[in-house]
Amino acid sequence: MRMRGIRHGWRSDMAPTAIPDRYDRRPKNAEGLGAQMTRPEGFGERLRRTFELYAAADVESARIRAEHLAQLSRLTPLLMAANLISAGLICVAVGAAGGAWLVAWVVAIVLVALFGLWGWWSGRGRVAAKVSPKGYRRGTLHAALLGACWGGAAALWFAPAAASERVLIATLVTGMLGAGAFALAMLPWASLVYTWLIVAGSLVALWRANEPIFVAVAVLLLSYATVVSFAAMGLARQSTALLRARFLHARQQQVVSLLLRDFEENASDALWETDAGGHLVHRSPRLAGLMGVPQEQLGEVKLPQWFASRSHEAGPLLAAWALGKPFRDLKLQIGRGEQARWWALSAKPIGPVEGAGGTGWRGVIADITDAQRFENQLRLQAEQDPLTGLANRRALMNAAQAAMSLGRAGWLLSIDLDHFKVVNDSSGHSAGDEVLRVVAGRLLALAEEGDLVGRLGGDEFAMLRLGQAPARAPQVMAALVIERLSEPIELGPKRLHVGASVGLARLDASIANVEDLMVNADLALYDAKRSGRGRSVVYASSLGAASRRMHTVEQALREGLAQGQFELHFQPKVDARSLQALGVEALMRWEHPVLGSISPGEFIPAAERCGLIHELGVLALQQACQAARELRELNVAVNVSPLQLMDPGFVSSVERILRGAGVAPRLLHLEVTESLMLEDAPAALKRLHALRELGVQVALDDFGTGFSSLAYLRAFPFHTLKIDRSFVRSLTEHADARAIVNTIVKMARVLGMRTVAEGVESERELAVVRAIQCDEVQGYLVARPMPLTKLRDWLAGRPVTGPVDEVDSRIMPWRSTHLSAPPTTMFGTDF
């Protein structure tokens, strides 16, 4: 028999059709609900859904457990009465033959029945809203006790009973099994435990009877019990699913009621209705408030004409009205300025015929003013820099794209501030923000008609020049920008200085897209900053080639490190007087199998850009320390990037490499540049002192070319000052250069530092260096950088043959007569 639940839409022989997706845990596929309904559910999934209430801790599961136990509680008096009556019949059937076991059994049945009745009586006046899994487990325990009692009755008294008594016992036990299993179906574990405990006792009874016919009876009993168990589990799943659907329906009804009540009380929308002439026939206070018309005068308003007189966007509405076509969410702006409001209108014609002959219209006005204002604000923010009020990157790119679509030519000036980080670090970010606002104002003052000034982010600005006949050429504008932004900025008592570099890129038919235009301007800007800042560069194709070369080098770096393509070369440093070798400077060289020899001036910046400078630095330190072990008492100097020194683990890395190579720390000299002091002086000072405490010597390289101050020289633990080669080259020609170097040497001597003259290439330069009492010299006059194997020959006084860093006639073995000291004087007998 098929039972149809009209309210919930289900049949007894199929899964519930009204259960929502969130509770229908059957597998889903791409064909949607239809496929979902026909696709068979896995056995494991059915088992999981059958017993899920025994563990689920959510509120809805607790409510379902309460409903199930409430239904079972209503049946408890009948079930316990049936148990007691059946127990009495068992006593009649067994009689005196039952003995003490029968008394004990009856007592057990009575106690279990009384326990169930007591629970029903104590809870009859109240209904629990939620029940925990513990309540389910108590029900299972009670069912197990009853099942054990009836299984025990069959096991104890079926076999010894007479035929008529056997029929009575079998009938009672079977009836209790079937009735109890289905009564307990909402508690599936209770039903299963109850059923199979009775089955177990019955199988013992049949075994004890020891008659062949009972083998078939046992098979039938197992089959019936299996069917009963699966049916009970199916009922449990259906009952749970129906309760979930009922709760969902109740929640949905509650939500709908709340929404309707809230709409009636607080809605910003208004319903309206007109006759065929457009006069309002439905007049509500909400509509009067929206239109700003007294409610008693609404009947005089002809709605189409009212919209036309108050909105310049009413054309689509009037057209739809005239054609009798329904419309939906048609947006209108009513009024202008700060008093403007935005409405969304939806309406359809009403009457016998929908169309031009309709008798009227019915619709709704939704006030979307707040949402529209928010959208307008978002649109403004999306295209405007919040700090300066200039156009942002998106607006600038959109303008350039629009110009390209129209085939218009123009120029893009990419403007980057110089030394802006110093402003932030010294005066704070609020002062930095004010500087950016001042810069924005100056750029706007320079802009001409057709120019769009924007801020791309950080301290980078741009000017897109699309004017038909600009008064200033692009290069002239770039020069004015640099000049204007170089002027000091007064912020209260502070007088701040920033400069600017400019990259120019032409917008014309050769530009494929806006991204290419931006890249070209950035490449020109990068070249301007690299070549000294405070200048402008116009993009040329050669810059693109340089960029591609830079990208190629960066790509090859990681592969080169992995394949061991890097090697240290060593350039000797000698005593300025005796020309005795005191140490060497380790210089990294890269011979790529395809790109050939790549200059350190190219791959070191590339390594810093792509984050490989730390790996490269560790490799240089390892190879240099291995060489120091072979060179005995000669010190080995290694150049260190500021990025390496800023690494918190740099000092411990140096210590670990020295320990691994077995080299005394005093033999390792680390050379840093003056730019380090502009990055993070306190952190740099801390790490340099840690290196000195470790025993490593620290040299300041290229001294005189940066922005060092005497205060830095006093604070930083430098052991050596290396005088830049630009000063050394000028020693023989310019007296002022000689005076500067002489001052540097004397200052270093006062501060307890040694001096090294770099780039000594002639004996005249060597003579001047000796005259001003510089301690050491380094340069092509002594030797070019060379591999370690050739350095050993050079130290031993043997001729150096083969390629040694572009070897030429200036490579001089120590047997040459160009220098004024013999090899034995310079190196002793150790080499």
UniProtKB/TrEMBL annotation:
Name this polypeptide is given: GGDEF domain-containing protein
Organism encoding this protein: Roseateles puraquae
Transmembrane segments: 75-96, 102-121, 141-160, 213-236
Classification via SMART domains: EAL, GGDEF
Highest taxon, organism lineage: Bacteria
Cross-referenced PANTHER family: DIGUANYLATE CYCLASE DGCE-RELATED, DIGUANYLATE CYCLASE DGCP
Tagged with keyword Cytoplasm: no
Keywords: Membrane, Transmembrane, Transmembrane helix
Pfam families in UniProt: EAL (PF00563), GGDEF (PF00990)
PROSITE patterns membership: EAL, GGDEF
GGDEF domain location: 408-541
InterPro entries: Biofilm_reg_signaling, EAL_dom, EAL_sf, GGDEF_dom, Nucleotide_cyclase, PAS-like_dom_sf, Rev_trsase/Diguanyl_cyclase
EAL domain residues: 550-799
